[in-house]
Design a protein that fits this description.
heterodimer; A: mainly alpha; ABC transporter involved in vitamin B12 uptake, BtuC; two-stranded antiparallel ribbon; 4 strands; B: mainly alpha; 15 helices; globular
């Protein structure tokens, strides 16, 4: 008897739901074993985690703040990965969206335009910034066949250095140059009040502000779902993702799809960057230990993979991972094992990846066929 | 003369480039067998933490024993991390990109390396022993070659041995030839009787061991301490991945590229110390390695020259006999 792995001819729909959920459960069990081995109590660690993420006063608000960027970068990764276009440049595209979005916010806000108009312009600018940055690997892939994986990754670093340069190493438009504080520590120029994105207050846990950006993220998720499930463009993208050969024989325009999908993916990540500025930091955060340490772009890939590139699932997973991130930030201290959040996220992702095998393949015990002499 | 900008840059390029070189040699071996491992950063961080821990905890005679043990433990823990990736992508045929990223998140600065380091209580203490230059200072002061060649720590010389070993292995030995065939055409290699899965496992694990040693180069030689987070390695793992491409998948070119990338890191502080202004130095000297890699990637892919320049044809694709 030996184990064989063979491809499933049809994938049952229920597996697509059961496997990711089971992955999370299995991951929590494995992480619990790790905790036990290293002398921590898994039950109390998990309870702490859950309390800090969803139960304590104000925790849901903080979790939503952590969820918003992950929803954007998760959708951005899902949009591209669905076509097997591995845009891992969500990180840099987010920075570019933040740079473009804050420039427009400072400029239009300072001219006293109506708040709704300024916010709309920031959204558009963020999308453009992200889309342009994503189009560099997109164009290289479409016309020269350069692997987008590494080019998009390299550009993350370049974008990070540009971001730091604008606020820390130059007297750029984005930098606060007036006032005493500006001479002590470099900071971004604050957004005028009419460029700040107003949260929507929910009366739960004594007032939970829901970031405006989160609504944009949900909207982006709906649009992405409709685009991929209800349009010819989306159909062609999915065919391309499943079989490039079939798409080519069917006469689909591959080059255009690559350009479009990279731009869409970058635009969503860039919108996330604009939301970071408009919703939360209210100034361009150029600190190498600030926005750049959060690694939203990379976590977004985890979110997308766990959501199996389905936009609605991605939004839900963003909430789960956002809760974990928030709990990890809150619980830094002696009583809570540091690094646990990354360990859990990693194990969840590994389990989901392993579970993917069960969705696509069937594992069977077979008798070896006796060799005939 | 030894204080001239060029000599100082080359000397620091060699020092800062060494951890990148180790990691790149490991990634080179894995990629030559067809496995792309984007988890280098995570493996380096775990190697840095575990190597530092082993060196702190062991007291054998002089410091040399503890340091060597630190390296061994770093290599072992890097290989254990790589084993997860190998199991995911070789046995379970998972997506190599996602699995590698998962490894970096799992093992990285917000994950296992911080968890282990904090649990083992090694944060923010100076190393009890470090790798340091051992030639007499009169030799270290020789013009030009003094600081560049003789002023380095032993890990630098060890990395040179590794470069020679990897280059010789890939070019001149039977298993080296086999691993290249596994990376180029796993189907053909399988038909020849080469165990594709075994070759991929072994080289991914050895690659992880190299990354672990690279991480320990930080915690035992360059900045001999450990702290939670990713500030110790700070992107060196990603640079190593870029370097493999930059070096056209060749060990000897990895050496040149690693020192170039290392020198770029030293450029900005050196220029500042000498009051030389070349525009926004921090911006362009920091970005240059990444931009250069993108340019190399474009050149490599231009007119299908990737094959000629050495990109393994089966890089990133799982191999299953019944589906080949």
């Amino acid at each position: 008897m030996r184990l064989t792995i063979e491809r499933r001819l049809d994938q049952p729909r229920w597996l697509a739901v059961v496997v990711p959920v089971a992955s999370v459960v299995v991951a929590l069990v494995i992480a619990g074993i790790v905790l036990l081995i290293t002398g921590h109590n898994p039950i109390s660690s998990y309870r702490q985690l859950f309390d800090a993420a969803f139960v304590q006063t104000g925790s849901i608000g903080q979790t939503l703040i952590a969820t918003t960027p992950l929803a954007f970068t998760g959708l951005a990764a899902a949009a591209a990965f669905r076509m097997r276009l591995y845009n891992i440049g969500g990180e840099g595209q987010l920075y570019m969206g933040a740079i473009f979005g804050s420039a427009v916010g400072i400029y239009l806000g300072g001219r006293g335009s109506a708040s709704a108009g300024v916010i709309a312009a920031m959204v558009v600018a963020g999308c453009i910034g992200g889309a342009l940055w994503a189009s560099i690997p997109g164009v290289l892939r479409a016309f020269l066949g350069t692997s987008e994986i590494l080019t998009s990754l390299m550009l993350n670093y370049v974008a990070g250095y540009v971001l730091t340069y604008l606020v820390f190493q130059s007297q750029s438009y984005w930098r606060q140059t007036k006032g005493f504080n500006a001479t002590v520590f470099p900071t971004g120029k604050p957004l005028p009040s009419n460029a700040v994105w107003p949260p929507w207050n929910l009366h739960a846990q004594g007032g939970t502000p829901i970031p405006l950006g989160l609504f944009f993220a949900v909207l982006a998720g709906i649009v992405l779902w409709a685009l991929y499930k209800r349009t010819r463009f989306g159909f062609e993208v999915q065919v391309l993702g499943d079989s490039t050969g079939a798409a080519r024989y069917a006469g689909m325009r591959i080059r255009r799809k690559i350009l479009a999908v990279m731009a869409i993916s970058g635009a969503i990540a860039g919108l996330g960057g604009a939301s970071q500025v408009g919703d939360f930091s209210h100034a361009l955060d150029g600190d190498p230990n600030g926005l750049q340490k959060q690694a939203y772009g990379y976590s977004g890939i985890v979110v997308a993979a766990l959501g199996r590139y389905n936009p609605f699932a991605v939004l839900l997973v963003a909430l789960l991972i956002g809760g974990l991130d928030n709990a990890g930030n809150t619980l830094q201290g002696a009583s809570f094992p540091s690094g646990l959040v990354g360990v859990i996220q990693g194990i969840i992702l590994f389990c989901a990846l392993g579970g993917e095998l069960l969705v696509r393949h069937r594992v069977r015990l077979v008798r070896p066929v006796a060799a005939t002499a | 003369m030894n204080n001239s900008l060029v000599v100082v840059l080359i000397a620091s390029g060699v020092a800062y480039g060494t951890p990148i070189l180790f990691a790149a040699l490991g990634e080179l071996l894995a990629e030559r067998s067809g496995v792309l491992n984007l988890g280098v950063e995570g493996m380096m961080l775990v190697g840095a933490a575990m190597g530092f821990w082993a060196e702190q905890r062991v007291h054998i005679g002089s410091g040399a024993g503890a340091l060597v043990l630190g390296l061994v433990v770093a290599a072992f823990s890097g290989a254990v991390m790589a084993a997860i990736h190998a199991f995911m992508v070789i046995t379970l045929r998972a997506n190599q990109i996602v699995s590698g990223l998962a490894l970096t998140i799992f093992a990285g600065g917000l994950g296992l390396s911080s968890y282990l380091g904090t649990d083992l209580n090694i944060a923010d203490v100076p190393a009890s022993h470090t790798f340091h230059a051992f030639f007499p200072s009169s030799v270290q002061n020789w013009p030009v070659v003094g600081p560049i060649v003789f002023g380095q720590n032993p890990l630098v010389y060890f990395s040179w041995l590794c470069v020679i070993a990897v280059a010789y292995y890939l070019a001149r030995t039977r298993p080296g030839l086999n691993v290249r065939s596994v990376g180029e055409a796993p189907g053909a290699a399988d038909a020849m009787g080469i165990d594709v899965g075994k070759y991929r496992y072994v080289h991914t694990l050895v690659g992880g061991a190299f990354a672990g040693v690279g991480g320990a180069t930080f915690s035992l030689a360059i900045t001999p301490t450990w702290n939670a987070g990713d500030s110790l390695v700070q992107g060196a793992g990603w640079i190593a991945i870029a370097l493999v491409i930059f070096a056209f998948w060749r060990a000897e070119l990895c050496l040149v590229g690693a020192y170039f990338f290392g020198a770029m890191q030293a450029l900005q502080p050196e220029l500042q110390a000498r009051n030389i202004s070349l525009g926004p130095t921090e911006l362009w000297s920091n970005s240059l390695p990444y931009v250069a890699t993108v340019v190399v990637l474009v050149l490599v892919s231009w007119r299908g020259s990737a094959r000629r320049l050495g990109a393994p044809a089966a890089l990133g694709t799982p191999y299953a006999r019944e589906e080949a």
